[in-house]
Every structure is written in structure tokens, then in C-alpha cells.
Specification:
The protein is an alpha/beta fold and about 400 residues long. It contains 14 helices and 14 strands.
Length: about 400
């Protein structure tokens, strides 16, 4: 169908609508990457180096199947919402993302740095995967995961692809610690250029709240984003023994996010991880890290059938999803794409993004003569000889 005021035909159109709607600093915070943005750009550009190998003659399937399962949850298409931090693009925040994903029949990842309580998000989408950073004491970490368990979280994600980089993100504006009077005055000129955004928030009950309720200790008020960021930076990174301990404490489906090397993937299997996500934090960690799609085949080969493999980074269309699945991913995770959809049209915009990707997956399966996402294989993809850029096997 053609684009309308309430519907967009591509993720790129969602991005353009988000740019028109959001104040400049909010939009730039979504599209920024670390330092020069090398990894940020490569995450997207690497997909264009891969080519398809469709059959010249084939009995094309009349219907195509996209349903699969991830971390024990059945989903309608092999795309889930990756956990992202404080979402100031729309008053619905993570609840809107969860609702849009639920309407699309898929799961949602919720960041422990989210702006909405895990209980509210789980109510909007029971297929919820809760994400934690190794931050604070073990007792504090246990409090957070037990709260998520009580709320109904079906899996735990531990993020390792965000390290102690103090450099300013490429193109990223300064993020205020809180929205106080001084901040409102400073940002007023931006708000005047995007009155629809401001009015949307005022109708929703107030301006964006940059606190993170899921990091609050029992009985304590929600800390600020920068407060918990400081706690995380003061906490030594976890060892493999720490990750094994966390997996044992959770006891259910467990995903390690931020795996870019085959040897690390094998170690994840050794500690009992249910799944690994090939991720470089969307280009917001160590700049110069290769695109995740370049690292995917080696990681998939390393774990085989011992753990599920997901890919996070650079997905902009359904054909990107198909390329990732053909090279070994069980499903992909999206971040910026659904945030653009959220900014463009709330929870309906989030569902719109999933629908766009699902339509692209379907048409690509048809062209490849594949009746199901489970029938895809490396034979469907032409991979350049130097594509992996030396990523270890």
C-alpha cells in the first residue's frame, strides 16, 4: 500500500518522519555513533556487499512461513525489539514499543536503563526479555533480576558490548541529567521548532523523565540515567565466572549480547548460555569494530546447534533479515528502526516497522524460492572473499 499520514512504506521513511518530528538534539542522540562513526556506518553498509543467488527456475512457494522461536518464545517473524535505554522520543516509551511488538506477534527486550517500569512493559507484552548490565554489587543485580522475574520476564539478556568509552559519541548532543527549569530554558529554542513534540508530551502528562525506575533499590526513588551510568562505570567488568554465576541465578533462558568473536561464542556455550547476540552496540562502543554481519558466520559456525544466534545491528529492510538468517542467525534484533517508528507514530509506528520488515522478508523468500525462513542457507548468499575482514573462526 502507498504511504499515508498514518502509514510508511520503509524504515527509511520512518527515519525521515522521526527527523521532522523530533527536536534536533533528540534525533541526533538516536543516530549518533562513537568517535568517527566507522562501525555505525559499516553496520549498515556491509549488507550491501552481500548478494543473493536466486534460482533461475523454481517451483515458487505460494505461501511463505516466517514464524520461529527465540529463547523459548514463539514469534510471528524473526525480528525482535532490542533493549535500548531511556526513550524520550514518545510519551509511550517502552510501553509503546512493547505494545507495537505484541501487535506484530513478536518479543521485546527491555533495558534495565529504561524509562518505564518492567511491570508496565510486561503487561503490554508478555514476551519480554529483561536486559541487565553488570553494575553494582551482586546483591543489587539479584534484586533487579528478581523484580523482572516477578513481573513475568521470560529471558535474561546480559549486555557486554558497551565498555568504558569516555569519548563523545560522533554527532551526539549533550544529554541533560534531568529536565529542570534551567534545562527547559536551554532547550526552549529547539522545542519551539518542534511544537508537535512538546505538545505530545504535555498531553501525556509532562516532559520526558530521564530517570530509570528498574535500577531503583526497593523503597528508593528512581535514580537518574547518569546516576546509574556512573554506578556501572565504577563496577569492574564481569569475569566468565561472574557470567556463569548470573546464568545460574537466573535459571532460565539466558542471552549474552555483544559477542563478536568465535572463541567468545564458544565460552558462552561453555557457561550454559541459551543464546548469543552478535552485536557491537549499534556502533556506540569501540569504533573500528567490524559490522556485526561480518562476524556472524564465524560465530554461527562456532556454536553450531548448541545455542541460538541472533544478530543486532544495521537492519533496515526485510532483505537484510534474510541475509542474516541465511548466514546463521535464528533471528535479528532491531533498535534505531523501531525508535524511528515510535517517534513517527507511537506504538502503531513500531508495529508499522515490523510489518515493513515482514513484508520484505516475504518478498525475498519468494524471490529465492524458499517456503520458510528455516529453509534459508549460505547457498542463498554470495559473500565476497574478504567480507569477514579477518574475523577469527
Amino acid at each position: 500500500m502507498a504511504s499515508t499520514r498514518e502509514w510508511f512504506e520503509s524504515v527509511e521513511e520512518a527515519r525521515r518522519r522521526a527527523r521532522r518530528h523530533l527536536p534536533r538534539s533528540v534525533y541526533l542522540s538516536l543516530v549518533a555513533g562513537t568517535e568517527q562513526g566507522v562501525t555505525l556506518r559499516d553496520n549498515v553498509a556491509a549488507f550491501s556487499e552481500l548478494r543473493f543467488a536466486p534460482p533461475h527456475i523454481a517451483d515458487l512457494p505460494t505461501t511463505r512461513q516466517q514464524a520461529t522461536s527465540v529463547l523459548g518464545q514463539d514469534i510471528a517473524l524473526p525480528v525482535i525489539a532490542s533493549p535500548t535505554g531511556v526513550q524520550a522520543v514518545h510519551p509511550e516509551g517502552e510501553v509503546g514499543v512493547a505494545r507495537g511488538a505484541a501487535e506484530a506477534g513478536t518479543a521485546v527486550g527491555l533495558s534495565s536503563f529504561a524509562s518505564m517500569p518492567v511491570e508496565d512493559v510486561a503487561a503490554a507484552n508478555p514476551k519480554l526479555f529483561f536486559q541487565v548490565y553488570w553494575s553494582g554489587s551482586k546483591d543489587m543485580i539479584l534484586q533487579r533480576i528478581e523484580r523482572a522475574r516477578r513481573a513475568g520476564a521470560k529471558a535474561l539478556i546480559v549486555t557486554l558490548d558497551w565498555s568504558f568509552c569516555n569519548c563523545r559519541d560522533w554527532g551526539s548532543p549533550a544529554i541533560p541529567e534531568k529536565i529542570d527549569l534551567r534545562t527547559i530554558v536551554r532547550l526552549a529554542p529547539e522545542g519551539m521548532t518542534r511544537p508537535g513534540y512538546v505538545l505530545q508530551w504535555l498531553r501525556g502528562g509532562g516532559l520526558p523523565d530521564l530517570t530509570v525506575p528498574n535500577m531503583a533499590a526497593p523503597g528508593e526513588p528512581a535514580p537518574t540515567f547518569f546516576g546509574v551510568y556512573g554506578e556501572w562505570m565504577a563496577t569492574p567488568p564481569p569475569s566468565w565466572a561472574d557470567l556463569a554465576w548470573l546464568r545460574e541465578q537466573w535459571g532460565g533462558p539466558f542471552l549474552v549480547k555483544g559477542v563478536m568473536r568465535a572463541d567468545d561464542a564458544r565460552r558462552c556455550v561453555d557457561i550454559g548460555a541459551s543464546a548469543v547476540s552478535v552485536s557491537n552496540h549499534g556502533g556506540n562502543n569501540l569504533d573500528g569494530t567490524p559490522a556485526t554481519i561480518r562476524a556472524l558466520p564465524a560465530v554461527a559456525d562456532a556454536v553450531g546447534t548448541q545455542a541460538e544466534v541472533l544478530l543486532d545491528g544495521g537492519i533496515r529492510r526485510g532483505s537484510d533479515v534474510v541475509k542474516a538468517l541465511a548466514l546463521g542467525a535464528r533471528a535479528v534484533m532491531i533498535g534505531r528502526a523501531y525508535l524511528w517508528g515510535l517517534a513517527a507514530n507511537g506504538s502503531a509506528g513500531v508495529k508499522n516497522v515490523f510489518d515493513v520488515l515482514g513484508g520484505g522478508i516475504d518478498s525475498t523468500l519468494l524471490a529465492l524460492g524458499r517456503p520458510s525462513v528455516h529453509d534459508l542457507s549460505p547457498d542463498d548468499i554470495i559473500v565476497p572473499a574478504d567480507f569477514a575482514r579477518g574475523m577469527s573462526k
